[in-house]
Each structure stands twice: as structure tokens, then as C-alpha cells.
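Q: Could you write out the predicted structure for this multi-component system? I'm mainly interested in how the pieces pack against one another.
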Amino acid sequence: MSDRLSQLQEAVDQLMEQFIATYFYIDRHHDLKTFGPKDTIAPSKADQPPEVDTLPPDVFQAGQLELARDLITREQQIEYLISSLPGLDNSEHDQMQSIKELEEELTVAEKQRQEAVKEKDEVLVKLDQTLRSIRRY
Amino acid sequence: MADSEEDNSALASFFPDPPLFWKAFTPSNLQAFADLKRQHASQQGVPVQDVVRVPHLPADSDLIYLQPPAEPEDGTWRLYGQPESLQESLQPLESAGIERLGPPLPGSVTGPTTSDSQTTANGSQSTTQPATDTPATSIFPSQQPASQLPPSTTGPGAPSQHTHDTLHLHLKRLSKSLLLNYLELLGIMSVDPAAGSQKASDLRTLFLNFHHVLNEYRPHQAREQLIQLMQERLDQTRAETAANRAVAEKARRVLEGLGSVDIPVSALDTTGGTGGVGGAGMVMEGDGGYAYAPGRRGTVVGDRRVGVDGDGGVDEEGTYWEREGMGWGVLDAEFA
């Protein structure tokens, strides 16, 4: 779990990977067309792997649709991450201000905490003594 | 022959030998260095632990090994063949030869870089980015740096007053432009694959811009995260204080219930009979449960040492434990 900025950057990188993957899917699986009625599609040579691995039209369509949907989903994810970036309404000045305030509050709270711990310890000692006295008598 | 064998064994050893200067860390050297450090600290008027280096150590002594080397004077050094710099700063997009889309982030440092990297960046630009003069297609035609934001008037050192409310819009534009450019790329490739490189470089520009904008935003995010952490810490501290106080309060109530809070400790610790009687009396009056053996008060006080000494009768010991149990019962009732 990283911060939102890194998530966003990762999402953008994944979008790029999806671009590439989608591109190669289309490049690999499209079908071949002829330019004119006299053209023929040359049969692929036996000793070489075929340049395109033509899929049936419906499978190709479905694949395209799925990839396009994935792209849109990723895009929506990116936009969601963008809109959830924290603290866009604060300027650097505001941030410094609130950091300073928090620092002071923290100092006060820490002092109070130590006082409370001390108080607790004192009461603990008293309680301990009382328990011992009860045990003794 | 012996030397070469030694060399071979040194090469074949699993761990490398320690650096030659390890012998310099003798107790006397350490002591001398500590003295020098203290002296230097008192001269400079700073605490000893803040002194990292003592300048002008005698060069011929081993003491120079006892402190870290000085920072490089020009602020740069090479590591694994890569130039490194003391100043970790985000390289501006322009100096990397990438066109900036949209306005610069307010408060971001877009100062000029050194002429050295400028020339190399420009050199690579001419080969990898042949057509930066044509901007990437954007579905928002108004995406020019014109007047979207007032130009930053504050210097990079002072905290800026700008908010980042336009960043959302900018990033969304960029991401939409990414999709649109990809669509265009696919369209171009299906018609004329040779013309696709232009579009691909546009996409590259968009991606780099996106990342750059996010990286520019990082300091802001870091501050934001710091604020969050501090807030959490504050809440935690306050909760701890409250919990501690609650426990203390509860324990104090128990003590008040037992009625022995006000006994001075010395009275309890005295072995004399008076202190014992007083203590026992307090316990009695504190809780009605102890009134079960008013007649035995004197006996108990008298027998107080009996249990400790171990020569008491079975009867007295039994009473002692009975009372003990009663005391704990009262405590349990208080805490329940």
C-alpha cells in the first residue's frame, strides 16, 4: 500500500502497458484483406511463424471490446485517484501553518501525557502500599 | 611464492579484508580524537554531538581515518559511473527536452540547470524528439500556459500561497488526452503505419508530463502526509493521556473506598504497635466489611509479626489468610 501519488503513477504506467498490449493484440490478431479482387493472400511460409494469427471475427471483436473496456476502467481509476489526491485546497503556506500548530499542540499533549503517566504511577504506588498494608494486618 | 599464495587466499576469501585503516582505531587514538572534537566544539560553541568533522587535523596522524570524509567541494561526485549531486532536485521538464503541457505547478522550482546537462539534454532531444514543435493533440484546446494561474511571485524558498485546485483539472485533461491520443494512434496505424511515430512521441510527451506533474506535487504530498501523521500522533497522545487519567481516577476511587489514602507511609512502616493499631483502625473504618472481628483487633496487631517470623500458631495464620482473602474480595468488588 503506497501513497496515492505512487498509486496514480503506477496506474498511469499500467495504462501505458495496456496501450502497448492492446496495440499488439490488434497487430497480432487482425485479419487480412485484399486491395482488389485480383489480389490473393499469400500463404504463410511453412518454416516461418505466421506474421498474423488471425482470430475469428467474433472472437477478435470480443477481445477488442474487452481491452477497450479495460482501458476505460483504468482511465476511470486514474481519474478517481486524481480526485482523491489529498490536500489540494491547501497551499504550502497553509500547510506550514498547520504543521507549526500541530507541533505546538503535540508538545502540550506530550507534556500532559507525561503528567498523566506520573499521576498514574503515584496512584499505583499508593495503591500498592495500601494493598501491602491490608496484607499485613 | 608465499606472497602470491597470500594474495590468492585474499582474493578467494568470502568476505573482503577490512580496510587498511582499521588499525587506526586504537583506544588512544579514539581518546585523542574525542578530545580534539570536544576542543573544536567548545571553540565553535556548538554541542559536541553536533560536530561531524574536525577540520585541519594533522595530516600525518592516523586521526584523519576517524572521521568521515569531507563533502565534495563542487557538490557532485560519481558513483558507478553516474554523476551524483548533493542537491537532489527534480529536473525541470524543459531541460530534459520534453515539452511542458499546461501550466507549471505553482511553487515548483523551474530554475535553469547547469549548462553541462543542458547541452546533453539538447543533444538527446535532437535525436529522440524530432518534432517537439507540434504539440500533442489535446481535447482541451485551451491547455496553454496562458493566464490559467497567476505567475508565481514568491521565490522558491518562501512558502507559496498558491493552492493546487487546478491540478485536478490539469491531470484529468492529461489523462483524457492520453486516451484520445491513443485512439488517434490506432487510427493512424491502421491507415499509414509509417506516420505513427509522431503520434507515439506525442503519447510519450503526455506520459512524461503526467509523471512530472505528479513528481512536482510530491513535496506537497509529503507535507500533507506529515500533517496527517502529526494529527494521528496527537490523537494517540491525547487518548493515552485520557486512558491514564481514567485508570488513575479509578484507582484513586478504590483507595478512597478503602479509606487508607491519607495514612502517611511512615505510619504504616513503623513496626511499633501504635502505627499498627492506627493502620488497622483505618482499614476498619474504611470499609464495613472489616468490622467482623472488632474483638480481635488487638490480637491481630499483636500477632502482626507472628506470621512474618513464622512461629505463629495455625490458628493465627488461618485468621491472617482469612483476612487477606477478605481484603482482596473488597478490592475485587471495587474494581468490578
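A: Regarding packing and overall arrangement: The mean pLDDT of chain B is 66.
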